[in-house]
Write a structure and sequence with these properties.
binds flavin-adenine dinucleotide; 16 helices; Alpha-Beta Plaits; 480 residues; Uridine Diphospho-n-acetylenolpyruvylglucosamine Reductase, domain 3; 5-stranded antiparallel β-sheet; alpha+beta
Length: 480
């Protein structure tokens, strides 16, 4: 299916205005605000519907489908793969006014509209001793609708699982404007919609599972003079049968960036730092687990292992890891935040290969991420106005190929969106992509749901062509 650039007929805008009234926005200056997510930019949408109810979404999709006009769902626009960015004339549907949130302590569930900010769920559930475990680092900006569309993860997902593991029921609007509500029994239709990046259906409500807040958490911090030792430590922890709540890595360039940013006294000559949390309700077990993790760090060759004495010290140890993103932002104004996954056993060679590749490019480069589940964020730092964007793209694609060579995947949590869509033909067997398209056609016969994202054009082209749009100021090029 080729992505066409449609113009939006006035008759559609008039029909939308008639049912939505002032929830339809068309002011061209205002539309400019909707060109972006956290990494990409595209053309402005023709109109934005600021939906307040499921019926608003249904009315919009019904009309857009009748006119075969693309619809782009938008949550908190914190996406890192261009998913909420228009690729041509479209109607955008924003969920920021769909923010109803109810917590039921007896069923341990939260019923949420899609525009609820991720963090708000745990904040509300805390008063009854519950929380919502998936914890993307963007949780103060991202919405639950965006999290479901991307099947978002976060540091805690190593032990607790990702967004999709917490969705019990979804309400969604189909491309032809029908409202459906389904749980996970039988054919798991919500499971197909979760992670589909807004290309199949529009999520309008979810029932999410909540968990009791663990009573005890212990934190360990380990310093390695060799990156490979850190990789081995991660493998050893798994071999010991431990599942930490979090197990996060910073490489030397991340350590140096944070030190330059915060002056915390971090070991800038170290090649890697691992920060680890173990949690649970039995203090003795949690203590045993963190001791066992510390032993694994020592066995792998850590030069320093520190166990936090209390929550305050633990927060201090986590501060370094939490500060990587702002610290890198301090070095160059722009960064390409990659999101690859490799098997834990290949963390070391994969990181070494990436560091070798980085030597051929003029850009500062750092690796950090959720090492416990092999999900790394190699970051290319650059300046959009002065650097060669094609070179940044080329570098990012070399990084993605490292993941594929090691039996990994293109994205752990940020999605494919626009950024990696052109790469899908190289990463995914054609038969699998054809199966994806058959699912897409079944859900969305007119191709109106977020076109140009996730699914590559299979019109005979298998050439990998970086979609430069994602980083530059140019128009989108969707002809992969
Ligand atoms: C600093 C930073 C840190 C981050 N850390 C993490 C992390 O740790 N883990 C992680 O997983 N991600 C992370 N991200 C990426 C991003 O926050 C996630 O992908 C998040 O899930 C996007 O949510 P959003 O509401 O901002 O979605 P948007 O960016 O608005 O949209 C994302 C996608 O979801 C679709 N969509 C939005 N709402 C709906 C809906 N109601 N129905 C159907 N489709 C919809 C959009 O069309 C788009 O394709 C990070 C981003 C930043 C900027």
């Amino acid at each position: 299916m080729k992505v066409e650039s449609h113009s939006v007929p006035n008759a559609l805008l008039e029909a939308l205005k008639a049912v939505l009234g002032n929830k339809l926005h068309t002011n061209p200056t205002e539309m400019l605000l909707y060109r972006y997510d956290a990494i990409a930019q595209g053309p402005a949408p023709v109109a934005v519907v600021i939906a307040e109810t499921t019926q608003d979404v249904a009315n919009t999709l019904k009309l857009c489908n009748a006119y075969k006009i693309p619809v782009v769902p938008r949550g908190g626009s914190s996406g890192l793969s261009g998913g909420a960015v228009p690729v041509g004339a479209c109607i955008m549907v924003a969920t920021n006014k769909m923010t109803k949130l109810e917590v039921d302590e007896f069923s341990r569930t939260a019923t949420v509209q899609p525009g609820v900010i991720t963090d708000a769920i745990s904040v509300k559930a805390k008063s009854v001793g519950l929380y919502y475990p998936p914890d993307p680092a963007s949780s103060r900006q991202s919405t639950i609708g965006g999290n479901i569309a991307e099947n978002a993860g976060g540091p805690q997902c190593l032990k607790k699982g990702v967004t999709g593991d917490y969705v019990l029921e979804l309400e969604f609007v189909t491309s032809d404007g029908e409202i459906r509500r389904m749980n996970r029994e039988g054919l798991d239709i919500p499971g197909v919609i979760i992670g589909s990046e807004g290309t199949l259906a529009f999520v309008t409500q979810a029932i999410l599972k909540l968990e009791p807040i663990p009573k005890f958490t212990r934190t360990a911090f380990a310093v390695f003079s060799d990156l490979g030792q850190a990789g081995r430590a991660v493998a050893l922890i798994t071999a010991r049968g431990l599942t930490p709540a979090k197990l996060e890595l910073m490489d030397q360039n991340s350590i140096r960036a944070v030190e330059q940013f915060l002056h915390m006294g971090l070991p800038i000559d170290a090649e890697a730092i691992l920060v680890c949390d173990c949690d649970g309700d039995d203090e003795a077990v949690v203590n045993l687990e963190i001791e066992s993790a510390a032993e694994a760090f020592r066995e792998a060759g850590a030069t320093q292992v520190k166990l936090a004495a209390d929550a305050l010290e633990a927060a201090q140890l986590w501060k370094a890891r939490r500060s990587v993103s702002p610290a890198l932002g301090n070095i160059r104004p722009n960064r390409f935040n990659e999101d690859i996954v490799v098997p834990r056993s290949t963390l070391e060679p994969a990181m070494r290969e990436m560091q070798e590749i980085a030597k051929r490019y003029p850009f500062p480069f750092a690796i950090f991420g959720h090492a416990g589940d092999g999900n790394l964020h190699p970051n290319i730092l650059f300046n959009r106005t002065t650097d060669n964007i094609e070179q940044v793209d080329e570098f990012a694609h070399e990084i993605a190929r490292v993941a594929l060579r090691h039996g990994g995947v293109l994205s752990g949590e940020h999605g494919i969106g626009l950024m990696k869509r052109g790469f899908m033909t190289e990463a995914t067997p054609r038969a699998t992509l054809e199966a994806y398209w058959r699912v897409k056609h079944a859900f969305d016969p007119n191709g109106i749901m977020n076109p140009g994202k996730l699914l590559p054009d299979l019109g005979g082209a298998t050439v990998v062509k970086p979609e430069r749009v994602a980083l530059g100021e140019r128009d989108f090029d969707l002809t992969t």
